[in-house]
Amino acid sequence: MVTTSSHEYRSSPPQFQLQRLLDAFEKEQKSFNDESKRSICALEERCRQFADNQAILQVRLLEKDSEIELLKTQLNTCSAVEEQLRLIKLKLDNELLESKSKTDEIRVLIEQAEVVKKQHENEIREKDEYISKLFAKLKEAEDERKPAFEKTANLQNEIDDLRKQLAEKEADLKKCGNCYDEMRKAEQLIEQIRLERDEVRSTLNKIPTCVICLDKRQCPACRQKICGKITAYQ
């Protein structure tokens, strides 16, 4: 609002004073209109919020009414529910008793299984010890057979050499004509070597071999060539 001093107001012309009053009034009216518009807008916004809140409250009231009706229905069926709970509790008690009985049976079975397990472990340990002893005996038998095997191999090499010599002699006989004496000597030597070989084989047959499979050709345990026969005692 525009204010003027009394001196200025009295010294101004009347028309000018009136114009100044009109201008001041228009400014005041414009300010009042703006303030009124802002107040109206604020009131309208609050009215809209109130309407929205009213709708939300109405929905909530309907939901609460539904909940109240549901609770009433549940209260009406409370006795039936209590009876069902009693039956369920009775059933659970019976199942607990049965479960306890089964638990006792399982405990007894577990104890029996532990006893059987210990027995099996003892049997397995005894069998392992027996197998270890058998392998030790097998190793001893192999050590005893090694010299005989070496002698047999040497004799076989000698036989092969003599056969080569015999073949050479036969070739020489064809060339020279009459060398029957040397052939007889060679045949006698071969026969002597054959007898020695048979004697070695007979000795090998008397030596115990594999105590597990009794195989004459190859033992699946030691994978070594073996020969002869044995009798295993348990």
Written account of the structure:
Residues 110-206 form a coiled coil. Keywords: Coiled coil. Mean pLDDT is 75; it is low at 1-5 and 223-234. It is elongated and about 180 Å long. It is mainly alpha-helical. The chain has two domains: 6-76; 87-206. Helices cover 83% and strands 0% of the residues.
* Number of helical elements: 4
Helix content: over 70%
The overall average pLDDT, rounded, is: 75
Roughly what fraction of the amino acids lie in strands? under 5%
SS-based class = mainly alpha
Give me a quick take on this structure.
The chain is mainly α and 234 residues long. Helices cover 83% and strands 0% of the residues.
In terms of topology, how is this protein built?
Blueprint: H1 6-11, H2 14-76, H3 78-176, H4 180-206
Helix pairs in contact: 3-4
Features:
single chain, 234 residues, mainly alpha, 4 helices, disordered N terminus, disordered C terminus, coiled coil
